[in-house]
Amino acid sequence: MATTYAALLRGINVSGHRKVPMAELRSVLEELGHRDVRTYLQSGNAAFTTDSDASEAALTTELEDAIESRFGFRVDCLVRDGAYLAAVAAACPFPAAELEGKQLHAVYYSGPADPERFASIDRDAYLPEDFALGDRVLYLYAPDGLGRSRLAEVVGRPAVVKGLVATARNWNTVRKLIEMTHED
After folding, report:
1. Are residues 75 and 106 in the same domain?
2. Which of 18, 30, 65, 98 has its CA 20 to 30 A from that of 144?
3. Are both 52 and 115 inside the same structural domain?
4. pTM value?
5. pLDDT in tens, 63-118
């Protein structure tokens, strides 16, 4: 049975570094045997359909290996199916419909976002910014945007996310990825 996934690449095409042109990313995914490949923006968002019964972790490793082979550097990736992305959006504790896309972010993780990792953060010190944890995701409310968020810096510290791949998407991109991976 075919499944549609989103591939989320971390830290590419930033300030001219680690360039992965989206046309070439589409080619890489097609060469891996995936179909209906499409990309969104230049920041490493792709959707694809596959008949493979491989796990998300196996699809992730396959994509990371293929990118390294093509471009000569390794890129951390996360692969998530459309049902997961929709469930993450549905579980959002913040009023997504009332906020601008730049105010709400989903930080996707490669593994569980254990509450213990975040226990030492004095959330009151960062108000009105706030965060909540979900299934391999952190929801970040940053009313002035991610670039001005002090809380984003704290929840993204290496000591907090140690051992996890983490990549953030604003809520506009979250919605677009759900649309791109929606299966009828």
Report:
1. no
2. 18
3. no
4. 0.94
5. 999 999 999 999 999 999 999 999 999 999 999 888 888 999 999 999 998 999 99
CA distance linking residue 49 with residue 27, whole number of Å: 14
How confident is the model over 119-132, as pLDDT tens digits? 999 999 999 999 99
Residue 32 to residue 123: CA distance in whole angstroms = 43
> 129's torsion region: left (phi>0), alpha (psi -120 to 50) or beta?
beta
Q: Look at the block and give the residue holding tokens 């990309």.
A: 39
Range of the domain at 17: 3-84
> How deeply is 148 buried, as exposed, middle or buried, from its count of CB atoms within 10 A (0-12, 13-18, 19+)?
exposed
CATH number assigned to the domain comprising residue 41: 3.30.70.1280
